[in-house]
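Late entry, written up from scratch paper. The run itself happened at the end of the previous shift, but nothing got recorded in the book at the time, so transcribing now.
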Amino acid sequence: MADESASAADFWNIAMETQLLGAVPRLSLLTMLVPNVQGSVGQMMLHYQREALTLLSRRWEADLTFVDKLGGARSAGDLATAWFDFARNAASDYSDTIGRIVTLEIKDAAEVAEASMGEDLRDVALSAQLVA
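Output as recorded:
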């Protein structure tokens, strides 16, 4: 019984060593790849936050202007005009921001792809494949 457990442990150790040694070139590629991708993703998040804060700033100013127009309205027509202008500008702001975010996503996706498959990393990947 002791021999069976010893042989099972040996088998497990040999299997793990073989798999780990085979993964070493891939791990070295991963250690170079992860920081590049993390940096690119961090840039993406900053772009999106900047767009969101810009939108919030514009909408805050528009809200204040809308309240001023409501307070200065002399007739129901003035109220309706203020409301429709506010709604039209809000829709325009949101659609413009969505368009900019989609453009940023396309550009940022290309940057992440370049960071994950840049020229330096392609050379490392080829070297790792040759070693493996």
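The mean pLDDT is 76.
(Scratch paper discarded after transcription.)
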